[in-house]
Amino acid sequence: MIPDRCFGSLLLVLIGMFSNVLGAFIGVNIGTDVSSMPSASDVVSIIRAHQITHVRLYDADSHMLKALAGSGIEVIVGVTNEEVLGIGQSASTAAAWVNKNVASYVPATNITAIAVGSEVLSSVPQVAPVLVSAMNNLHKALVASDLNFHVKVSSPQSLDIIPKPFPPSTAAFNSSPNSTIYQLLQFLKNTNSYYMLNAYPYYGYTNGNGIFPIDYALFKPLPSVKQIVDPNTLFHYNSMFDAMVDATYYSIDALNFSGIPIVVTETGWPSQGGPNEPDATMENAGTFINNLIRRVSNNSGPPSRLNIPINTYIYELFNEDKRPGPVSEKNWGMLSTNGTAVFPLSLSGSSQIMGNSTTVFCVAKDGASEDKLQDGLNWACGQGQANCSVIQSGQPCYLPNSIKNHASYAYNDYYQKMRSIGGTCDFDGTATITTNDPSYRSCMFTGSSNASSGRGLFPAGEFGPVSPLGEGPKLSVSKIRFVVSAACLFIILL
Ligand SMILES: *[C@@H]1O[C@H](CO)[C@@H](O)[C@H](O)[C@H]1NC(C)=O
Ligand SMILES: *[C@@H]1O[C@H](CO)[C@@H](O)[C@H](O)[C@H]1NC(C)=O
Ligand SMILES: *[C@@H]1O[C@H](CO)[C@@H](O)[C@H](O)[C@H]1NC(C)=O
Ligand SMILES: *[C@@H]1O[C@H](CO)[C@@H](O)[C@H](O)[C@H]1NC(C)=O
Ligand SMILES: *[C@@H]1O[C@H](CO)[C@@H](O)[C@H](O)[C@H]1NC(C)=O
Ligand SMILES: *[C@@H]1O[C@H](CO)[C@@H](O)[C@H](O)[C@H]1NC(C)=O
Ligand SMILES: *[C@@H]1O[C@H](CO)[C@@H](O)[C@H](O)[C@H]1NC(C)=O
Ligand SMILES: *[C@@H]1O[C@H](CO)[C@@H](O)[C@H](O)[C@H]1NC(C)=O
């Protein structure tokens, strides 16, 4: 038995640190078309070990919902596109869905939203006529269960439903006054819900045929002569991500709705692609995700809505190797299922993200069995290569001479040194994370701001190897067909 598996990545640590510190959150989508999907409890261990606070499921898998109980993690559950029709046609089907998939798990599992379908308007238009009716039926069922204040109903849409997203100020849904999108917005407004947007600068860039510089898609600074400015508002758009969110705000405005916040339910960048997908690289994926986290974490909204943070769910946790489509389609994950990071992150790029964020310590859990703690301690000081010299007799952390105290020191030493390369705070369930510095008297825990070792939490280490994924069948499936015509071009060359 291995007390701690090498789950995790630097990236997720960064996410976790940020979610503690700032208002805007970064969540993660959990797709399951994975040939070696870890068990639900392992998935939750990974998420918890890295303090991810928000997840979105594409269904309402009972194992996941049970495993998430008591974690405090906020969960979006999904109505699949196949289920939308029945729920739209029958209030009792909706009520049964809510009872089975929501009411029976809350409050232990913190379900805060139901995502109804996935990109229905663009990808399954035949379901669109019943979409809002399905949302209404679900909302009524929540009202009947007295859950409507806690659980919102919304429906993730692709940016595709905005034919010309650039410049943002003139963007508009392709809609007539009583269209589905109009009714959907009316529903969101009436129920105090939010708009769920799937926004992929990767597709905006790759389908833009060179109109936009890749740096714009990757949140990198543009030279001053190539600033991207909306000619109507004169807002500077530092990233395509910001422009996509603003295009959606302006499209909502154009239908005379206001006060509906946007949450980005999907964004990401594939780390590997086929021969015709040269931009799907580990380097680009690492840059995008790293910069996305920094962007969202600064708490500001897009130029037209500076005060509304852009809460965002990264697509996605694991590479989904079973998904059909181009090679890139299988490579949106941040982690392999054994927990190794799929792409390296530039540590220099992340130093700003690190900021002064609180150090997280790993200590033995109250009530953990002594046998398991002893196993964990042995492993940490042995294979785990923790420096256990200070818990030896006569050294500063020897007293109190208990297995729990010694395990805490060893777990934490291991964790501080190894987490950047995938070490987690688990130790067969006997360890837990805390922001309280466990140091006492002259016993300084590794990572304590008073310890001489300082904050060397992120040694330049190796990252997990990249999974060698085979070529998949080449279907031309893409999440977004992102139409950029020459007319949309508004790069102003100053
Ligand atoms: C569930 O999430 C809501 C919304 O953020 C939060 O206010 C609440 O404290 C959470 N509940 C639990 C039990 O963690
Ligand atoms: C709009 O659509 C709703 C639902 O389909 C329908 O009940 C209503 O009569 C329509 N209103 C107009 C003005 O067409
Ligand atoms: C929005 O409001 C303006 C001004 O009241 C009106 O002219 C316009 O027709 C409205 N647009 C829609 C889509 O309702
Ligand atoms: C936050 O990000 C936005 C968009 O990139 C940028 O305009 C703004 O200056 C940033 N704010 C801070 C405080 O870094
Ligand atoms: C971070 O630390 C530096 C130097 O100690 C300090 O000047 C700065 O204000 C701190 N920033 C935050 C956000 O606490
Ligand atoms: C272990 O920690 C002790 C005390 O802090 C230190 O003197 C020693 O050099 C460390 N050993 C290694 C191998 O880092
Ligand atoms: C760290 O040092 C400061 C100032 O010397 C002291 O107030 C604080 O209690 C120390 N923290 C710990 C955990 O020893
Ligand atoms: C993790 O999985 C990847 C891809 O499947 C593999 O290349 C790597 O060797 C594995 N790492 C460990 C530590 O098992």
Automatic annotation (TrEMBL):
<dbReference type="GO" id="GO:0042973">
    <property type="term" value="F:glucan endo-1,3-beta-D-glucosidase activity"/>
</dbReference>
<keyword id="KW-0336">GPI-anchor</keyword>
<keyword id="KW-0611">Plant defense</keyword>
<keyword id="KW-0449">Lipoprotein</keyword>
<dbReference type="GO" id="GO:0005975">
    <property type="term" value="P:carbohydrate metabolic process"/>
</dbReference>
<keyword id="KW-1003">Cell membrane</keyword>
<dbReference type="InterPro" id="IPR017853">
    <property type="entry name" value="GH"/>
</dbReference>
<dbReference type="GO" id="GO:0005886">
    <property type="term" value="C:plasma membrane"/>
</dbReference>
<keyword id="KW-0472">Membrane</keyword>
<keyword id="KW-0378">Hydrolase</keyword>
<dbReference type="InterPro" id="IPR000490">
    <property type="entry name" value="Glyco_hydro_17"/>
</dbReference>
<dbReference type="Pfam" id="PF07983">
    <property type="entry name" value="X8"/>
</dbReference>
<feature type="signal peptide">
    <location>
        <begin position="1"/>
        <end position="23"/>
    </location>
</feature>
<dbReference type="InterPro" id="IPR012946">
    <property type="entry name" value="X8"/>
</dbReference>
<dbReference type="GO" id="GO:0009506">
    <property type="term" value="C:plasmodesma"/>
</dbReference>
<keyword id="KW-0732">Signal</keyword>
<protein>
    <recommendedName>
        <fullName>glucan endo-1,3-beta-D-glucosidase</fullName>
        <ecNumber>3.2.1.39</ecNumber>
    </recommendedName>
</protein>
<dbReference type="InterPro" id="IPR044965">
    <property type="entry name" value="Glyco_hydro_17_plant"/>
</dbReference>
<dbReference type="GO" id="GO:0006952">
    <property type="term" value="P:defense response"/>
</dbReference>
<keyword id="KW-1015">Disulfide bond</keyword>
<feature type="domain" description="X8">
    <location>
        <begin position="360"/>
        <end position="445"/>
    </location>
</feature>
<dbReference type="Pfam" id="PF00332">
    <property type="entry name" value="Glyco_hydro_17"/>
</dbReference>
<dbReference type="GO" id="GO:0098552">
    <property type="term" value="C:side of membrane"/>
</dbReference>
<comment type="similarity">
    <text>Belongs to the glycosyl hydrolase 17 family.</text>
</comment>
<keyword id="KW-0325">Glycoprotein</keyword>
<keyword id="KW-0326">Glycosidase</keyword>
